[in-house]
Each structure stands twice: as C-alpha cells, then as structure tokens.
Amino acid sequence: MKRDAIGTPIARQTLIGQRVRKPDAPEKATGKTRYINDMVLPQMLTAKVLFAGRPHARIVRIATDAAEKLPGVHAVLTGKDAAGLKFGFSRDNVALKDKVRCEHDEVAAVAAETEEIARRALELIEVEYEDLPGVFSPEAGAREGAPLIHDNFPGNRSLHFEFKHGDLAAAEAASDFVADSVFRPHHVTHCCMGTSCAIADFDHKGKLTIWTQTQYPYNYKMDLAPALGMDPGDIRVIQPPVGGAFGSKLDVYPYEPIAALLAKKTGRPVKVTFTREEEFKASPTRQAAIIHMRTGCTCDGVLTFRTADVVLDNGAYTSWGPTIPVIMMRTTSGHYRVPVVDFKAQAIYTNNPYAGSFRGYGNVQTTYATAQQMDMLADMVDMDPLDFHLKNAQKSGEYTPQKSFLRECALAECLETAAKASDYSRKRREYAARRAEPGRYKKGIGLASSIHNAGGAKIHKSDGIGTILKVDDYARVTVITGASEIGQGIDAVVTLIVAEELGVPLEHVTIVNNDSDIAPWDVGVHASRTTFIAGNGTRRAARKAKAQILAAAGKMLGEAAETLELRGGFVVRDACGTPLIELERLLRRMHFQDEPELVMVTDYYEPKSEPEGAAHVSDHSAAYSHAVHVAEITVDTLTGEIKVDRITVAQDVGRIINRMGLEGQIEGGIAIGLGYALSENMRLVDGMLTNPSFRDYKLVTAPEMPPLELHFIETHCAEGPYGAKGISELPTIVIAPAIANALYNACGVRIFNPPMSPETVARAIHEARH
Amino acid sequence: MKRDAIGTPIARQTLIGQRVRKPDAPEKATGKTRYINDMVLPQMLTAKVLFAGRPHARIVRIATDAAEKLPGVHAVLTGKDAAGLKFGFSRDNVALKDKVRCEHDEVAAVAAETEEIARRALELIEVEYEDLPGVFSPEAGAREGAPLIHDNFPGNRSLHFEFKHGDLAAAEAASDFVADSVFRPHHVTHCCMGTSCAIADFDHKGKLTIWTQTQYPYNYKMDLAPALGMDPGDIRVIQPPVGGAFGSKLDVYPYEPIAALLAKKTGRPVKVTFTREEEFKASPTRQAAIIHMRTGCTCDGVLTFRTADVVLDNGAYTSWGPTIPVIMMRTTSGHYRVPVVDFKAQAIYTNNPYAGSFRGYGNVQTTYATAQQMDMLADMVDMDPLDFHLKNAQKSGEYTPQKSFLRECALAECLETAAKASDYSRKRREYAARRAEPGRYKKGIGLASSIHNAGGAKIHKSDGIGTILKVDDYARVTVITGASEIGQGIDAVVTLIVAEELGVPLEHVTIVNNDSDIAPWDVGVHASRTTFIAGNGTRRAARKAKAQILAAAGKMLGEAAETLELRGGFVVRDACGTPLIELERLLRRMHFQDEPELVMVTDYYEPKSEPEGAAHVSDHSAAYSHAVHVAEITVDTLTGEIKVDRITVAQDVGRIINRMGLEGQIEGGIAIGLGYALSENMRLVDGMLTNPSFRDYKLVTAPEMPPLELHFIETHCAEGPYGAKGISELPTIVIAPAIANALYNACGVRIFNPPMSPETVARAIHEARH
Fold first, then answer.
1. d(Cα B512, Cα B524) in Å, to the nearest integer?
2. Is A421 exposed, middle or buried (0-12, 13-18, 19+ CB in 10 A)?
3. CATH number of domain containing B214
4. Burial A681-717 (b: 16+ CB within 10 A, else e)
5. Interface test with B, best of A540, A602, A603 (most B CBs within 10 A)
6. Would you place residue A2 in the very low, low, confident or very high pLDDT band (cuts 50, 70, 90)?
7. B309 with B441, same domain?
C-alpha cells in the first residue's frame, strides 16, 4: 500500500473461497496461546470438588470441620450452601447436592491456596451415605415401582415430544416393504483436550466475572444466575481460548456455580479445573437412546412412511441432551421425501451420567437409523441404494412435513457426486458378490446421507447477532462481534469478510469477542450457525462502513459514490480499478476535517427463521443442507476390526467462504464421527464409568484418519453470506451409517448397538455365520 | 427496580453535582487492582537498561559478549540496534544511544529470564567512554563556542516561540510603575508511585501489543512507530491501571521502544520496570527555565503591558517540555487584562535531564512570575492587591490578545469569594503591619490567581473523542470510550453521566477503555480536557441511546416519545413520573420482536476550538477558567521553614459533575503545587542528580497537607457537559505564588528561585535584614 501505487489499476479479486489461515493458529501452534486452563489471576485460589462416587444414595451425614481447619483452606461448601439454587433445563439440578443421583454428583467443594491442599482437604471430608437402589436404563426407570430419582418427577418422566403427519394406517397398508429395527446409540463424550475449567471472581459491587469455556455467553448468564441466586445482569462472561467444546459447553454445569459460590465466600478469584478422569466422569455425554424405527416403501422404491419411537436415557439431570428430539424429528420427517410421519420421544430419568448437546445434536443417533433403513429398503426392493436414494431425494423448493423449506436442495447432486467419485455402484456390486467368498478380509462400500439445519435454528427468542465495527486512522479494522471463537474458526471467517468488503489486508483486521461486557448479544456457537449468522452480521456491518467511506470519498473527490469501490487499500473507480486515494489517507481526512467523521457502525442481524413452536411445524432454520458420505472399508472378519480405507464426501456448503476452515471442520467432524462409529464408548456398569481414560476410551487420532476426498457443492443459499450455508455438524452425522452400510456390504451384518467395535462386529459376523 | 414498583411515581432527581465514588476505588483500596507493575505474562522476560551515568561522552567501545553468554540472557542491545530509529518532538532521540548526552542516556539493554540475571548481565557489559565537556545551563549552552550536544542543532538551539501584541514602547511610556524580575523555576519530577513500566509483545503477524502507562494511546502509536521503524497501525496500546502519570506519560520515552526492540529480538514478551532511583534519574521533569518578566501599570492601578523573555533548559533531548511556551504565552498575555504583550521563548540544549509535560504545563512557572508581579505592582501603587486584581480582571465575553474567548469569566467572583472567605484584606494589612515587630514566627497571607484552558486545547489535529455505547437485555450499559482512566477519575464521570441520562443505577454501567484496538480514538489525558471532552461525548452517546429507547417505548406504549423519560430503571411519564414499563423489560421486548432492535450507538465529539496556528492567535480551548488561592502561612524566620496554615480556594468549575472527584483533583493538584513551592527540587551537579530518593527529594505527603477550604464557582459553561469546565491543572498552578505572596506579606522577601525551601527562605530573610 505504497503511495506510489497510485495510478496502477487494482484488479477486482475476491477472497471468498480462498484458503485463509486462522488468526489464532500460529499462537496455538507455537504454544503461545494462554488457554483458560493456563490462566492465573492474582490471589487466585484453587478449588476441588468431592464427587459422590456412587450412583444413588442418601447423604446421612457430612462433616467438614477437619477440612476447614487445614491451613491454606479458605472455604468448604456442601449441599446446604446451594440449597434452593436450582438450575438447568428442568430446574432439577443444583451446584452441590443433598442427595446423590449419579456417580459424579457434587457433594462438597473446597477452595484452597494450592491444588495439593485442596486435595488433602477433600480427603478430610467425612460423608456417610445410605445407598439406594439404582435405575440404570430408561426401561428400568419407566417400570412401575422403579426407584424415584427426583421426588417431583413421578414415574421418572422427564421430557416428551410428538409429531404426526399424514395417515399412517393408510401408508402402512400401501407399503410393500417395511424396515423395522431397534437402534441403541450409546454414551460417548466430547473428550475436549482442554478439560472443563472455570474461574470466578466477584468485584466490590457484587458483580461476578466468570472466565469459562461456554459457547453461549449471553444466555449462559440467564442460565447461571439461578444457580447463584443472582440477577443475570450482574454477570460478565469472558471466554478465553479453549481446548475444544463441540457442544459440551452449551449449558451450565455444576463446577461453574461451584467456582462462583466459592469466590463469593472467599472474596478471591477461584479456579476449578477437571483432571482427565474427572472430565470423563463429570462432563456431559452424547445422549444414549433406544430408537425403534420403521420405514416403509412401495415395491418400486417410493418411501411411504417413517415412524420413530424414541426412549432417551435422561440420566440424573436434564441438560440439553434430552431436548435432541427437536432435531431427531426433523431428520425422521425430512430425511428424504417421507409423506407420512409418526414421531414420538420420551426421556426417562436414570442414575446414569447425563447428556448435554454434542455436535450433530440428535441427528447422529437418528441418521444412524434412517440411513441404514434406506439401505435395508433398497436391498428389499433390490435397487442400487444410489437409485433408491435419488428416487426419494427432495428437490429445491420442497417443504418437509414439518415445513422446513428446502430453498436450495442439492441432495441429488451430493448423491451423484459422491457415488461417481467413489465408483460406488460398481464397487458395491462387486463387494456384495464377493461377500460369500472365503477369506479373512472383506471389502465393503457404504453410502449414507443426512439433512441438517445450515442457517442456525430459532430455538431461543432470537437467533441473531450484534456487530460493532470501527475503522481507525490507519485503516485498521476492529470488529466487536457477538460471535464466539471456540476454536472452530469464526475469527478467520469474520476477518476474511471484512477484508473482502473493505479491501484491506487480512492482517489489518482485529476481532474483539468472547467478553459479554464488550461484545453485543449473540445466541452462541451451535446449530451450525456461526459462519452463517456472524458472516451475515459482519458483512452487513462492513457494508455499512463501506457505504460511509465511499460517500465521504465521493464527496471529497467529486465522484459518484456508487462508481467507487475499496480495493487493495485504496478507493478505486469500480469499473477500471484506478486508485484515487489511499484508504488510510481518506480516513484521516475524514477524521481531521472541521466536521470530523469516524467510521463506527453497528448492526443487529436476525435470520429469517421461525420459532420451533409447540406443534413443531415451522421453517426453523434459515437454511438446510445435505451431505453424502461414501465409506470404503476393509473388515477383518476374524477380529472384527474395521479399517476405513477412504471416505468420499459430497456436501452442500452453499458457498465456500474460507476453504481451509471448511476443510478443517469437515475433517474434524469426521474424526468425531469415526470415533462414535468405531471405538468410543463410555462403559457404564450400574451407572459407574469403568473406562475414564484415553487408554480405555479410544479416540480416533490423526494417524488413524483415512484419506478423505472432499467435494463441495455450491448451491448459493439466498439468505447465507455470499451464499454460504452452515457446515459443521453434517460431517459428524453421516459417517457412522456410511460405515454401517459398508459393513453390511462387506459382511452382510448390521450393528444396531454402536460402536462397531471389533468385539461387536466379530460377534455379529460369528452369529450371522452360525 | 422491582416490578411492583410500577404505579409509584418516580421523582425527577439529578446525579450531577453529587458525590460519586470512583468505580476503581474499592479494588485499589483493598489491594485487588493489578497495576501494570504487577503484571506477569506467560513466557515474559525482564529487561534492564544500562544508563551512562555521565553527562556527556563519546562511546569508544562497547563489549557485550560476556553478557550475552550469561545463562538466562536472551538478548543484549546497544546503540547499533536502534541506529537511525529517531523519535521525539524534534526527532533527536533514539532508544539506545551511540553518544552520551545526559546522565540517564540508555547505552545498552538486556532481556533475561529474571531481573537478577538481567542485573548481572549489565555488570558484564564493558563500555569505554571518552568524556566530553558538558553544558549545564541554558546560558552556557547558548554561549559562543559551547560544546555542541546534537551535531544537527547548531548553537544548541532547540525551539523558539514569539508573540507580540500592541505598541510596547508606547505602553512603557504610559507606565508609572514597572515590575521587572528574573524568575528561575527549577527542575522537579512527577514522582509517580508506580514507577515507569512497559511490557511489549509481538504476535506472529508482526503486530506489537504494548502495555504502557501512556496517557495518549492513539497519538502514542504515531510517536512510538518511528522508534521501531514500524507502521503505527501495527501497534496496539493497552493501558493497565497505573500508579500516577500527571503528564509524565504524554510522550514516548526510551524504555518503551527498548522493551519492544527486545521483544522483537527474543520473540517473547519483555517487561521493563524502573527502580525508584532509575525513576528519579531517567523519567521526565518539569521544565526548568529563566523567565525575565516585566509588567507595567499606571499610578491608578491599570495594567499597561507585560513582557516575558524565557530561556528554557531544554535538556539533552526534546520531549514536550520545551513546548510549554504555548501555554506560558497564554498566561503572559491573558492573565488579567493586559493590553500590550511581548513574549519570546527559546529552548537551549544542555546535558541536563530533559522535561516532559507536567500538570500545569508551563503555567506553573509563568504564574509564579505573573502572580507575584501583580502583588509587587499593587504594592508599588499602594493598593490592596485584591482591588488591584479586581481592577484588571476580565469579564465574561472578553477576548485576550491571543483571542482566547472568555465566554464565561468568573475571575472577579473567584477573587471576591476567596478574599472574603479568608478575610484576606484585613489579615494582609495586619500581618504587614506586624512585619517589623520582633519575634521568630511571622504570619502572612497571600493571594494569587491564574487562568488556564478548561475545555481541552487543540494542539493536535483533533481534540475529539469517540464513544460507543450499548445497552444489554438487563439494562446494563457498556460504554466503550476513548477516554483513558489513569487514576484521575474519568470512569466515575462517565458512569455518572450515563446513569443520569439513562436512569440506571451507577453500578449498572461498565466502562471499556484503555485498549486502542477496542476503544475509539481520543487525543489523550491532558490539558484539563477529559471530563469536558469525554463528558460531552458520553452525554451525546447516552442521549442517542435514550432517544432510541424512548422512541421504541412510545411506539409500544402508544405514547408520544417526547412525553417520556428514563428514571429509576423505568420508562416514566416525564411530567408526573408515573412508571410505564421497566426499562429492562422494554429492552427485551425491543430485542425479541420480529424486527429486533438493540441499543448500540456511536458518537464522535469534537469541541469547538481552533488550532493554535503559527501566529498563536486562536480560541484554542473550548473553555477557559480561573482559580484564586489564598494561602495563610507561618514563617519560622530562624530556620526559614514555611508552615502553610490554611488554603482557601475559589475556582470556576463551570458546573460540578462529581463533587468527590472534583475535590480529589483539587486536593491532589494542590499537593503537587505545594511540593513545587516548598520542598521538591532535583539537585543537579554538572548534570548529575544527587538526590534520587524520597529521603532526599521531599514530597508533600498526606499528614503535611494543610486544611483546605474549597469554593466552587459555577458559571455554567455553554459548551461544557452540563456546564462543566476542566479543573485539574489550576490547583497545581496557583498555590506557589500565593505562598510566595504570603511570604512577602510575612517577611518582606521574595524568592525568585523556587522552591521556597527553609535554606533559601532563611538566606533571603538574613540578606534582607543585613
């Protein structure tokens, strides 16, 4: 941006779709980033929590005197200190318990000068328990006479959902084939590399600042406040860099109010950090469920109906996990053109760990069912699954029975692209033909797809975002945005969009976010919404700034503003690219004139989406998207081990904004989906987790990632920023049933109780053979 | 703000003029505040600077090998590492020197793991000097053949200023009396309780973040950039809480680029902190000068002319100190109605320490002269000084010869108020009459006044401020303001004004400032401007927010917006105070409606003031103000010790905003002025400071503060926020000559070379008697 560049035309170029590095990447790669777990505040105390370590019990007596007397201990809290401070989706949780309902129930907490002292203090707390009979499955919980987990929830009934559409009896009668199966998706957990951590501190006016990993800072205040008996307005939420979240931080969990209660009592900042074992035991899970699904079709392969009867293992408390039927029913009713739908779901309290939200949010479980039943039906009608899918695929402009409006629908294109790129049909026939041949290793190929919201979801009263944008005298841009960066890459997207609109280098954009006192409102990172919503908000704010700048330039230069553009750090003539004035010089002239004009704009963007409503009929997202995965695997029929050889992805992304970020999200999402499909499993025995470590709980890590071939379908979403859609959940959702279908292709077996671990697969193959 | 309060009318009340606690006070009083000096960043290195310790020398050789090899040392820099990176007002300074021009010249700097290692590394640096003959007074520096301090400043001439108005010869001829004296104001320093400190860190895109005590973050970037060879846009300035500034942080000083150069070289954050001794030696001073002043009057007490010939001891480099003639000439020309003026000033380089800006900025020195000459002339014409002052006092609507427009002038009212409250005239006669009586202790009373800008000063291209204000769903207000809090209390003022305008509790206002990437532009804390400028900016932003809120309320409630007001957390009918809707409920309704509306406003306020210009004729401040101090003292004629018994202050404050903050500023300002008058003195011997400690350099501390009686005159400044004027410098300016005049009243002696220390006063009394 040298002055002497004036005169050389600057060509029109776009950053949209380019590969842009995350601004936080170099600091993270070189160890400079200070994660919340690294943070130390002056005078900070360390807290430790005493967990019950048993699934269901009455607390007979609790003695904390010895702990309180230990030098260096500043406070010991027990259930009485949180009495009445109910919080959570059903107001059934409390920071410190007076009764034990699951293994990780918080019985006491200590704040001390050091972690070592806090640990020793925990050992000095005496608790006398009276164990109670437990409930370890939803079936058991629903049974007449089952032990009651919450006195005010008779029959252990938590939540229920229902949606019906069309004449089921008629549809059943018209069906030539029906796939009827019971799927039992399992408990997994997020396994964030940064364990749960919160730091709380009160100032002298009683205002709480909480440093937390939360993904939704604004509603978080509302959710945290009742756990502390506070006004939400008196809470400031700061989100330092976090080592993963994936939906696990979309609610308040007890360690957060515990930190705050201890900070209040001690008058000092208090930090709680989980060990890895605590993280496994005490952080939320993906919802386990029993899904009884039936899907019908005619003999010529037209879907006739789909029903799902879902029973969720609610666990001991109600976080967002049991609300996943909201999305489960969208998939049940909208995954392919299903004319008749009957969906019901109920959640039953158990003494198991409880679930929060998790990337894919119910759709991982449901697609595991729907996508396998599509494969089963294709088999029944003896069609190539690709043809069966294509026959039932919606087209642009269709509505689902719940009134999701598929304005731009690329399901068929995704199917054709992935199938063609992987040579799906030929391989599938070939592998199926070889199924009965002798040999230990069998190859299989499987195709699966799903639908997901791709423009947020109006679950809360607003799905919008606030943005404040200022441009300084050196043409450096600061964007104060409600969008939270939790590692997913939104800062890169915001940076790219500002650079695109204002013609400044990427390095000249600074993002200010993750502090609820500074940044304006946003509903948080979830529902594949952030690039869509914050992208729109950023673009609108940047365009307001541009309009102001070009108007001033036009006035100063005596040119019509609409003939001007910002490019390469200059105001240029749009048509020819001739630079007229350096942007930063213009900004200084605007600033240092008699009537100074600084560029500071604000915006609030609300997507065009409709609240879910009690009837569940609404266009609840501003966009929807599809993805198709083709998985190619080799099965060791002796050990049951599945090796994934290659994954071909075709996903409707609307339009690519940051290609590198998009690829990263797809890869990361598939890694989570692969773990879910193949190896991750919380092994619970009577509510107690038996494998709380990375030795016994197997994640898919980088060296185990198969080759991925990514195809991005650009449908140019009318409402999305530059046409983009949200993209981050589908990769996690689609891979498991693709592998399940490949397993069937290879060996003729299906696994209804994932994960498809070697043991489970080997048993299934053995049983099928004998 | 309970809902059931609906119905009970809420009376109109104002916070303007109330006593409001500084929001940062409790944290400071309880030790919770983390000052910059307390800050520790991850991986931070500590730097130490090697000072020359001699006033003028050539560096023959410098060897750093041994220091570099010391384990724990990460970088050693010398003059070659800063070669060519000139900075400062006259671009005559550099972070690390290749020639020594004053005792505290920075010869080398080290960054190491610990302070101890850095200290040891300094000891290992070998420097061979060739001492040069020095220049230790401006007279010596101006002399033909004097040693040259900077090769490119021949004759050691630094800056010069001139202003003439009217026919001096005619005025002299018309004068019956002329006071003609030479004043020699001395070197003092700011003595901030928090010593100089900076932390610098570069990110991976080469952007520098500097945590600093600076008072002017935005122009600071521009001033720091050349010292580093950087683009100012690549600098982020964060101002953590500081232990005092008082003008000492209105420029870049070498330790700041040194921290940045070391950070760049090491790739780690680097912190520099001065010891108290280093602070005395290496931080800026108040400008020492020689002021030859002449003031004439007629025999009936009408001023005829004033001339000042000022020679400033520039010191070794040019910071803002030598620019004080800009203000000196305003006082020379505008302190009382002076029809003819002849002002000239020049600054001469010496090998003494150099001056920055300091509260009172040249007016402390000049008022010490003007206010004593007024007393001398009153004596010559045998008038009560009060009458003499009143006779020459300007009235509202007058212009000074430099065209300062005294729109609201309360000089006469200040004089009368202070004189009456202290019984000045009677006591003065009585003490003068007792002067010749025997007795060791003599009482005296002295009156002095001054004029100062009270609405900022257009020294830079803009004297404005940017403000961003948002109101959240709980009616909590965040103000993102360019105004820096450096302990002076602006956060309390901003808070008060927001609460006043929006009818919310003070506790519900959060200020976000002191970070140049977040807050919008402001010219910094100086020239008694912040309450005036930021007060106006805040009020304008708050009023925009109010207009938006009341418009929305009017629409929702079906009322005319102009009949509504915000009071006590409610929208009320202005006339009767009847609450109509809780503000926070209204805000949520605005947010959660189909077309959401969030309250986020921006403002840039530029005062109506004119650039100084080369001719020095302009209305350079948006307001002017006067203060009168009456000092009552007891002089121990044996020891020369002056005990101040009482100070009566009358100051035109325009309108009181925060009474407690105002009182604090007046008290603090007088404490600094008292030290200047009585005890503080940098004792320089051949350019070397001989008293760099609080044992040998005597501050006035709390127990030594005399009783103060404060009278605030409210002139309701048309341009000021609610009528307020800036107030913070006059207290420091006026007290010394009031004491000097009291000393004359008590003993008949005048001190032309302050401070009026016991030794100086005793000598003067002795000489007068013998």
1. 15
2. middle
3. 3.90.1170.50
4. bbebeebbbeebeeeebbebeeeeeeebebbbbbbeb
5. A602
6. very low
7. yes
pTM: 0.96
Q: How many domains does chain B have?
A: 3
For tokens 């304006």, what's the residue? Answer: A520
Buried b / exposed e along A270-289 (16+ C-beta atoms within 10 A)? bbbbbeeebbbbbbbbbbbb
Is it the case that residue A4 has pLDDT exceeding 60?
no
Q: Is the pLDDT of residue A290 over 60?
A: yes
pLDDT of residue A5: 53
Chain B, 219 to 238: residues with Cβ < 8 Å from chain A are 221, 231-233, 236
ipTM exceeding the 0.90 mark: yes
Task: Mark which of A553, A570, A605 sits at the end of a domain.
Answer: A605
One domain for residues A233 and A125: yes
Query: Taking CB atoms and an 8 Å limit, are B517 and A512 in contact across chains?
Result: yes
When scoring A231, A476, A599 by the number of chain B Cβ atoms within 10 A, the one with the most, hence best to mutate, is A476
For B153-202, the pLDDT digits (tens) are 999 999 999 999 999 999 999 999 999 999 999 999 999 999 999 999 99
Same-domain status, B320 and B391: yes
Cis-peptide into A707, omega within 30 deg:
no
pLDDT in tens, A620-648: 999 999 999 999 999 999 999 999 999 99
Tell me how close the Cα of A478 comes to any Cα of chain B, in angstroms: 6
Please say if the pLDDT value at position B3 is more than 80.
no
Considering only CA atoms, give the Rg of chain B. Answer: 27
- What is the average pLDDT across B126-137? 98
Distance from CA of B454 to the nearest CA of A (A): 21
Span A556-564, average pLDDT: 97
The domain in which residue A617 lies consists of 289-457+612-769
Query: Per the CB < 8 Å rule, is B596 touching A584?
Result: no
CB B100 within 8 A of CB B107: yes
Among residues A371, A340, A376, which one has the least CA distance to residue A165? A340
Question: Is the Cβ–Cβ distance between B280 and B393 less than 8 Å?
Answer: no
- pLDDT tens for B542-598 read 999 999 999 999 999 999 999 999 999 999 999 999 999 999 999 999 999 999 999
Q: Does residue B171 fall inside a structural domain?
A: no
Residues of A in contact with B462 (CB under 8 A): 591-592, 596
* Contact assignment for B34 to A26 by CB distance below 8 Å: no
Asked if the Cβ–Cβ distance from B517 to A597 is below 8 Å, we say no
Evaluate whether residue A167 is within a structural domain: no
Q: Which of B218, B480, B481 would best serve as a mutation to test chain A binding (most A beta carbons within 10 A)?
A: B480
CATH number at residue A393: 3.30.365.10
pLDDT over 90 at A422, yes or no: yes
Contacts of B475 in chain A (CB under 8 A): 233
What is the phi/psi pair of residue B463, to 5°?
-110, 25
Alpha helix (H) ranges present in B463-558?
490-502, 530-557
Q: Which of B221, B464, B470 lies nearest to residue A520, judging by beta carbons?
A: B470
State whether B10 and B77 are in the same domain.
no
Q: Between residues 602 and 641 of chain A, which touch chain B (CB distance below 8 Å)?
A: 602, 604, 606
Contacts of A504 in chain B (CB under 8 A): none
pLDDT at B4 over 50: no
Q: Which residue has the tokens 């299906």?
A: A750
Burial class (CB in 10 A: 0-12, 13-18, 19+), B252: buried
Contact between residue B305 and residue B218 where contact means Cβ atoms under 8 Å apart:
no
Looking at the predicted structure, is the pLDDT value of residue A369 above 90? Answer: yes
Q: Kindly state whether residues B574 and B619 are assigned to the same domain.
A: no
Give residue B292's region: left, alpha or beta (phi > 0; psi -120 to 50). Answer: beta
C-alpha span between A201 and B20 (Å, rounded)? 24
